Amino acid sequence: MKRKWAAALILIIVLSTFTLGFTLSYTQHIQSGGKYEKLASEVMAEISKLRKLNPPEDFKVEVVSSSWVKEHWGKPQGAEEPLEWKIYRALLLVPAEASHREFEEEWTGCIMAASSGETLYIVADLVEDAEEKVLKRTLAHESVHMLQYVNFEISRPETYDAEQALNALIEGDADLSADMLLEAEGFKPPEKKPFKPETMGYREALILIRLFPYQYGERFASFLYEHGGWSLLDEAYSNPPSSTEQVMHPEKYLEGEGFERPGLPAFREEGWRLLGENRLGEYFIYALLARWIGYGVAEKASQGWNGDRAAYYTADGSFLLLWATMWDSERDAEEFRQAAAEMVNAAGGVEIEEDLWKVEDVFIVLKLSGCRVDVFSSNSLEALETLLKPAS
Question: How far apart are CA 257 and CA 107, in angstroms?
Answer without folding.
Answer: 34
